Amino acid sequence: MATETFGYKTPGTDVPTDAYYIEDSNATAEDDITGDEKDEVYIVKIDASNNSQEHVQTRVYMAADPTVGTDKAALALKAERGRSITYTITNGEQTDGSLWHGAIILTAMSVATTQEMGGEAGATAPSGTVAVTVGVRDVA
Amino acid sequence: MATAKYAMPITNLFGLVLATVREVGVTVSGVTKDVRGGPCTLKRVLVCNNDTGATATRVSCKIYDDISSSLVAGTSLPVLVIPVEADESTIVTIDPGLTFENGISVLCAKSVAGASDGTTCTAAPDSDVTVQFLTT
Question: pTM value?
Answer without folding.
Answer: 0.83
